[in-house]
Amino acid sequence: MIAWIPSAAESAFLAALLLGLCCGTLGAFVVVRRMALTGDMLSHAVLPGIVAGIVWNTSRDPLLVLGTALLAGMAGTGVMHAIQRTTRLKPDAALGIVLSVFFAAGIALISMKQPSGVQAYLYGQVAAIDPRDLAMLGGVTAVVIGTITLLFRVLHVSSFDEGFARLLGYPVVWIERLFFFLLAAAIVVAMQAVGVVLVSAMLIAPAAAARRLTRKFGLMVLFSCLLGAVGALTGVGISGVKAGLPTGPMIALAVTGVFFLVTLASPYDGLIVKGWKHRAMRRRIERENALKAVFHVLERDGFRHDAVPVFELARHSGSTLPAAEKRARGLIGRGDAMWTGGRSGVLLTTEGRRRAEEIVRNHRLWERYLTERAAYAPDHVHDDAERVEHWIDEDKVRRLEEALDFPEKDPHGKAIPVVGRDGKEGA
Amino acid sequence: MNLEWWIAPWRSEANVWLVVSAFFVALACALPGVFLILRRMALAGDAISHSVLPGIVVAFLFTGSLDSPWLVAGAAASGLLAMLVIEGLHRGAGLREDAAIGIAFTAFFALGVLLLRNYAGKVDLDPDCVLFGSLETAVHGEQWIVGGYEIPRVAASGALTVAGVIAFLTLGFPTLLISSFDPGHARTAGFRPGLINVLLMALVAVVVVVAFQAVGAILAVALLILPGATGLLCAKRVRGVLAMASIHAAFSSVGGLYLAMALNCNVAAAIVLAGAVGFVAAWLFGPMDGIWRWKKKRLGKITS
Amino acid sequence: MTTPALETHDLSVSYRHQPVLYGVDVAVPPGKLVGILGPNGAGKSTMLKAVMGVVKPAAGWVKIFGDPLEKSLRRVGYVPQRESVDWDFPVTVEDVALMGTYGSLGWFRRPGKEQKAKAHAALEKVGMLPYADRQIGELSGGQQQRVFLARALAQEADLYLMDEPFAGVDAATERAIVELLREMRDRGKTVLVVHHDLHTAERYFDMLMLLNLRLVAFGETEKVFTPELLDKTYGGRLTLLSEIATRAARESKP
Q1: In chain C, what percentage of residues exceed pLDDT 90?
Q2: How confident is the model at residue C30 (pLDDT cuts 50, 70, 90)?
Q3: Disulfide check for A53: which of A68, A415, B282, C153 has CB 3.0–4.6 Å away?
Q4: Least CB–CB distance from A86: residue in B92, B131, B291
Q5: What's residue A425's pLDDT?
Q6: Structural contact between residues A210 and A223, judged by C-beta atoms closer than 8 angstroms
Q7: Which chains lie within 8 Å of chain C at 3 or more CB pairs, if any?
Q8: pTM for this one?
Q9: Which residue of A has its CA nearest to B271?
Q10: All domains of chain A in start order, with CATH
Q11: CA of A82: how far to CAs of A16, A98, A253, A391, in Å?
Q12: Is A123 on the interface with B (CB under 8 A)?
């Protein structure tokens, strides 16, 4: 092995890296298995175990501390399940009880024995992590990532569908126990970096962020791992730059910050992208409504003319002249129509005409469908069709036409346009 | 541990105030906590006790005193902000509710700890009070003069909080009852379950501020949940649960003193541990679900 | 024409962008015993919840006795599904019945002698007065159902909504409840019952509402309880309707 003693700064960054990788990876499973609260309970329940381990063994052998912590964690989980099984108390109350009582036991022990080195677990002191703890952190990280990689398929299936996993012959109960141990171990080592309360942040935030980036679970685990590392390193970095800022909270805030960033900026469903898509959708609907209005005026005149005067447009839709002009300008701008008669009227382009026919066809087909197949009254279908007409794609149109046997009229007797015929619609 | 050991502590005025203050704080938390449990919102209590921290710290930094009423305002603002963030994450960003709560409260708590550790040196505040509470020092701290007597501020403010809690609960008891049991039905009866929720959360935020000074943020959760849980195992009706929870609060306070003496440990932790003993007693022997009763029933079945 | 006890127009309710109810138009005349039938997930419970204002409709409105929800909610009594009640809650039979009177109290008044009398009368009507002091978790299925019926009766409502009241109930209780419902109808009350059993549906109800995402039919039992209408109701979803409506709902809201 390399006999390399890292400096304090190097230790801190290395610890942050390992912490991020470990908790990020595990966190993906925690979030998917909905064990966030269990994680929170464990991080509080292990405290008496940690203190007992430190006190009992003055040389502070990290492995021993890990062992006693695990015992405390198991005891806490056992008590929680016992409460739920034997009383009318609900899971949230049982969890809260175990969390706070075990933590109190830990605090009591601390005040009684005044052990040194427990500060690290309470508040997180990644900056002052000693080589043995660093080694254990590295060990736990390796075990966690190694186990998850080896057993990925098994863990994946059992996290999403336990029944199916059983069917496949997976030892679901052992998998749960294994996962529990990994989680408890990760929590104990994470506590040394971020402190007892903030371990939850390390488990939840990177995974929640990863979830917004992809739906594929394998990728989600990978992203969660990386985002955890990025967040942790950022946290340590910032607190290093501005001396005096405690690293524990800084790391927690950094991973939360990463989560917010991803929520805003995710190309998949980030808020920015969503907002932009929403605006685009609104514009599309406006465009289609404008085209519809023009088409209706044309139809009302029996398609005798090709151009529609703007004032007719205003009158037909009951709007003001400036509003109708604005609409017309919009159509022109998008290439759906052209000015005629010195800007007094509009003429639809082929493109515009086509889309107008499609929308009106959709509207009337849908009305037909609702009245014929879903037993709606004819005077109750218009509003719904106004909403839905923008969302029927070609495939659905085919299916509607087939289901209705290629109807020619809507429930009000208006002709359903056949798209693409050159304006010579049958009445 | 002869009789003298049991009586001696009460000769010290400081100890008497300790128990009295602890009782007020515990009672103030126990009563709203009953409704938290009935509404399955025990963990909302946990979340609130963590989210109010930055508000408390900011208010403290501005006023320089742990006794200022601005602490409550700061806590309320912080708690409200946290709730808005959670709503925003849940509704706006489509995050699941428990994930939203987890992210929000850890972020707020981290912020609070950050502010505390960063500025604590500049003001006279021991950062450990978040985890350990500061009841022992508070009892010796600022005193109020009431009717010619000196009363520790922490006891007086505890008493005031209890009074406020009792007033709130008395006034709103039918409202709380019906909205906790069946919110849908409450709506048809003309109540507004959403608003009641918000008010309850606000009340919890206020008592958490008071509890924070006594037992610290994390142990406040115990004071909120343990009495109600114990009461639920003992009583058939909500009034009984509230009564039992109050008895539990008294037991924890007194028991906490003795436990702290016997173990020589932190008083806040001792109060919670004494409360745990009470809970276990109810768990084993309680009239509603007590294991002893359950075992008796089983034996009864065998013999009959 | 008399004001309908319940009227909805274009009522649509979605759960996570999936339409559960779609464009329901119905007018229920007062003084009728109405059964609501449909397959699982068809929106029957949702219909009741939308009427009570517990879920917000994505579209459409609800009127109760001609007034919007907020004004006339007090006239609506609700008997929930057994599975949605927390039976561990520390309340007794009497407490639950008493809660039915809270609507007339306002926020800060406490129930007094008058309210207690009404609660007791309601319990008497359903035969649960002897159990007044029992915690609700200690009751049998049929008894639990009757307690909630008493709550609705104590409210002195005019429109009663009941969600599968006969599920898991013994035959004697079922007969007793049907008797009671008929008596309420005779006194001019309107009762809507989400029902799960086709056989008894034909016997119990004056009118039937057939729901499957949308309203298939509503009217007198003899006219509506026909093989074709039942087939339309139970014979599978209109997939196109479901798909297109879902897409429209999901895409048009960010």
Answers
A1: 45
A2: very high
A3: A68
A4: B291
A5: 44
A6: yes
A7: A, B
A8: 0.86
A9: A104
A10: 8-268 (1.10.3470.10), 274-348 (1.10.10)
A11: 36, 11, 35, 52
A12: yes
